[in-house]
Design a protein that fits this description.
The longest helix has 26 residues. By secondary structure, this protein is of the alpha+beta class. It is built from 28 helices and eleven strands.
Amino acid sequence: MRIFRGLLSSFFVLAVLAALASAQSKSLRSIQIDDMNRAVGPCADFFEYANGNWRANNPIPPSMVRWSRRWASGEANKDNLHSLLEEAVKVTSAPKGSTEQLIGDYYGACMDESRVNAQGLKPLQTLLKQVDDAQDLAALQRVLVDLHDLAVPVPFALTGSQDPHNPAYIMADISANGLSLPERNYYLGSEDRFKEAREKFVTHVSNMLVLAGATRPDADARAKTILAMETKFAEASLDPATARDPNLLDHKTTFAQLETMAPHIRWSDYLEHVKLPKDVVLNVQEPKFLQEVDRQMSQTPLADWKTYLRWQLLNSAANSLPTEFVTEHFSFYGQYLSGAREMKPRWKRCAESADRLLGEALGRKYAEKYFPPEAKARTQEMVKNLLAAMADDIRQLPWMGEDTKKKALAKIATFNPKVGYPDKWKDYSSVDIRRDDLWGSEVSARRFGVNDDRKTIGKPVDRGRWDMTPPTSDAYYNPLLNEIVFPAGILQPPAFSLDVVDAVNYGAIGVVIGHEISHGFDDEGARYDEQGRLQNWWTAEDLKKFETRSACVADQFDNYFIEPGVHHNGKLVLGESIGDLGGAKIAYMAYMKSLAGKPRPTDFDGFTPEQQFFIAWGQFRGDAIRIETQRMMVQNDPHPIAKYRVNGPLSNLPEFQKAFHCKAESAMVRPAEKRCDVW
C-alpha cells in the first residue's frame, strides 16, 4: 500500500508539473506564425518558409540596407538611445564631465544643424592649414601623426593589441589602413562593377574637394591622384580572405628592423609623440604594405601626399560638416555602394555617433533602463548550458583523438563569458564636450578614444575591457582572451526575451551564443590555445582531419551565388560559417539537454518544440539585404548573406531533417557525401 500511494503521489506530481508546464507555455510567446510563408515547404527553402511573409509585408525602409525583425530591434535600440539623449539634452545644469553633461551636450551640438551649416569648414581650418603648410617630409609626417591622434589612421595605424605569443600583455600593432574603397579588388578588379566603382569614387572625391573650395578641374585632377596613390596601397595589401590567417599578420619587429623596413618614416619622432619607448614590443601586420608607404614617402610628390591627407581628413569628418558634405558622403557610401535610398534622420545619426564616441557613458544609462538583472541571469544560464553542450560534443567526436580532445576541453573550461555590460565603466569626465561646438567635441572624444587605447600598450591586459558598447546589437569572440561577449543591445527580442518559450530563446540567441563559442574552434580560433596563445595544440592527424572538414564548409559556400557570376568566397566566410554550423548544432543539443527531467513542452499551433527551435533561428537570421550591400559583402565581409546563413548550416544537420521530415532528395538536405560536420 505504501508503494502504491507513492506511485499515486508520483503520478500526481507529474500531472501537476505537466499542467504547470502547459499553463506556462500558453502564457509565453513562441514563433511568429504570421511571418511564415507556408506556400514554400521547409525542406525546399527554409529561409523563405521561416519568415518570407514578414519580408514580403515589411520592405526594407529607404534609410536601411538590411531589414528583419532583428534589424528592426537594432533600430529600436536607437529609439531607446534617442529617449535617453532627449532627456539628457534638457538638463542644462549638469556638472561638467558628468554623464548627463557629456551625452546631453554632445547630442545638443550634433542636432544643431543650423550652427554646423553656419560654421562651414571653419572647424577644420587649423588642420587643413597644417596640411597645406607642410613644406617637407618631416612636416608632412607631423601632420600625419596629428591625424592619428584624431583617429584618422592613414595610411597606417598604430594601436594596442594583445601579443599572440604572450597574450597577457599589450603590444604596439602597426596595421594597413588608408583605403577609401571597401577592399583591394575595388582598386584592382577588372570586372565592370569595380571599374564603375572607381569612376564613381573619383567623381565623389572631386565633389568633396569642390565643396571644400577647389575648382572643378583641379578637384578632378586631385581625385585621380588620390585613386592612384590608394591603388598602390591596395596592390601591397592582403585581400580580406588572406588577412584572416593570423600567422600571416604575425611579424614581431624591433625598432631597428622597423627603421630598416621603412627608413623614410621618422619613427623616433613618432614613438616619442605617442609616448612609447623604442624597446616596446612591436608587430607589423603587413610589412609589404609598410614598405609601399615608405616608397611613396620617398617618391610621391609632396603635393600629392598633401592632397591625399586633405581628402582623408574631409572623408573622416564628413558627417560632422555642413549638410552638403553629409549628403555627398551619403550619396557615394550609403547610396551607391550600399544601396540605401535615403539618409537616416539626423537624430538617429546623432544617436549612433554618441554611441560610437561616448559608448560606455551612454551605454550605462541604456543598460540601467533596458536590461534587467533577470535577463542577465537568464542569459548567463544559457551560456553555461551551451558551453556544457560544446564540451559534450567534443567528448563524443568520432574523428578527434584523445590528446586533442583534452586540449579542446581545457579551452572550453577557460572560456570567459561577458553578458550585458562591463563590470567597470570607462571614465569620460576628461572629455571636453561643448554644446556649441560639434567638431571640437568630436575631436576631444576621438582623442580620448585614441589615448585610451595607447595607454594600454606595454602593460598587462585588462580583461575587463569591452570591444563593443552595451547598446550594440551584436556579439563577438576574442581568441586572445578566449572570451565571448554579448552586449545588452542584442539581448532583446527577437534574439532573447523573458516572455518566450525556451525553444525560441535557444533557437535565436542560443544559436548566437553557440556561434561565438564555435569561433573558438573555427579555422582561425582553433589556432589559439586555452591561454590565447597563437600556437598549435592539435596532433598532426587531427589537424588534417579538421582542415578537411573545414574545406567542406568552404566549398559549400563557394557555390552560393548572390547573382549570376557573383558568389561567396568560401575562405572569406569560413569562420562565420563554421560558427553558424557549430552554433546551431550545440544550441540544439543544449535545448534538448535543458528538457531532461521535465515534462515535454507543448506544441505551438501544430509545431513541435524541435520545429519551433529551427523556425526561431530562421526568423532571427532572416534578413532582407539590398543587392548593392550583398555585392560588398561577398568582397569584404566574413559573414555570408542571411539566406545562406539560414539554409547553409541547417542543410547539414540531421536534426533539422528529422524535425521537418525532409526526404533525402530535398533541397534543404545535402547529400551524405557532401554533408559538412565540423563540431
